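Q: Convert this sequence to structure tokens.
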Amino acid sequence: MCGIAGIIAFKDGTDHYLQAIHAATAAMDKRGPDQAGIYTYDRLALGHKRLSIIDTSSAAQQPFTDSTGNYTLVFNGEIYNYQSLKELLLKKGYSFVSSSDTEVLLYHLIEHGIEKGIEAVDGEFAFALYNKELQCLNIVRDRFGIKPLYYYADESTLCFASELKALIHFPFNKAIDKAALQAYFHLNYIPSPLSIYQGVKKLMPGHWMKIEGNGNASINKYYEVKAGEKTSLSFTEAKSHLRTLLEESVQRRMVADVPLGTFLSGGIDSSIITAIASHQTKHLQSFSIGFADEPLFDETAYARLMANRLKTEHTVFSLRNADLYEHLFDMLDYLDEPFADSSALAVYILSRETRKHVTVALSGDGADEIFAGYNKHAAELKIRERSLSNTLLKQTQFLLPLLPKSRNSKLGNRFRQLEKYVNGLKWSAPERYWQWARWAGLSEQGLLKESYTDEQGYQTTKKDCLLNCNDDFESVLRTDLRVVLENDMLVKTDRMSMANSLEMRVPFLDHAIVDFAFTLPTNYKINAAHRKHILKEAFADYLPQELFNRGKKGFEVPLLRWFQGELKSLIEDDLLSREFVERQGIFNYSIIEMVKNKLYSNSPNDAVEQIWALLVFQIWWKKNQLHLSNN
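A:
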């Protein structure tokens, strides 16, 4: 993977803006440590930082300009069907100076144009293509948002970059987006198209933007997951077709001119990807992370079981809580905007250690969202039943506030989940989704001062996120793609891998697989007894029985322990102290004080996640306050 940046100026006297391209490009050094390049023409500048994967020679360096000198491309990502596209271009008389997918993408787009050309591309990408003759710039993002792309536009300029740490080097007013801030304190992340900066947007997945030299710009959609007709295939036929699609997807994603391996967590998804990959290459390397101090979350026994079965060259990185804490602030320092999914720390460390062995890794991301693998999917299915148990649970609702709730004990977590489920019985499907997506949930509690709220903008964001969520169960999965996968899971994977110059590839998010998954009847994917039913059945011969009989686990950082120890001074004496908060002027301290008191009680419930969301924001704000303007 790589990093891209660019700026186009529309008016006389704005050429000095172009000078920022050097700083913006240099800011993405970890995304592309192998090579840097700058292209300038008139009022346009494009920058590129390269992580060499396919054709590591200088012939594939970017920015890449065609033989006529008219078209220039900067590209972050991989095109997995580039070889078949290249064969078609050769038949049309094109010649190539490299063996890279970058050059193939460039000539494919020249031949077919953006709108038609992008439909034939299979990959994960964000790129910008400039046509010198027409003075036209197109920026494009992949179908599911695997690769990031931020942009800012006003009457004078448009600038874009793979990361905010690059974009902020361009000259525009940097103020906090209030609607984004409210959304963050509900979800623990910021949903697209918003970013933490007012006026800075994320180009939506499956979209491309056309920018003309006079400043006219238009955004166009080229892909979306549709609620189409269900397949007529039997379950047996469907699982056979799914197996073929996933095997082909993995095979395409194993093309690289550098060492490649897989993440093997011990769960179903990564085990399937590793199993397929191991049948397609000898001496496959696999990697997992273990937690010596947190046996509840340690899955290395299952990972080793799978690795032994597949005979992979398996490496386990066994960590103690001290190791986690050692890397905590490095991980937070890399984040460009507040992002409070604490499991990012494990992905950061796993990526860091894996990068010492390989440059590319395959992961199992995406399977839970398209094949219904989460606890909430089982709960959603159950809540739609008109059952006696649901009726009885409604009658016990008055008792639930009396029960101790905490993520840090087995019984407390059960009570927490029960309250969440019972509350869900009284909500509509969209409202239930929004509430079940809640982590911090502080926006509704008056955390933010009025000067830092934008209720109308927040409600618009909520409505946009829930646009396709309705009484159809499949709409919940489509909303997961739009909200959770794009803004949480893929952000976590991309940022943490790129922080360590490791390229991540996600075979489950081949659009042929996603499109097929949404033609499957719901009962092929989930029923009262099974989640990801068809996926497990399609690869049952690859998976040991032990993997089928275990519950789904997620990793949670030992936050409460840190809040009572290593991080307590940050909470009490620094970032969440009354003096700091009141001087900062963003939060109502009374709400923070209430959460702090709850944190150390016998029933902390969500206070741990709320404090974490606050600390992550405060650390980001302290780092960036010098270039933030007043709202």
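The radius of gyration is 24 Å.
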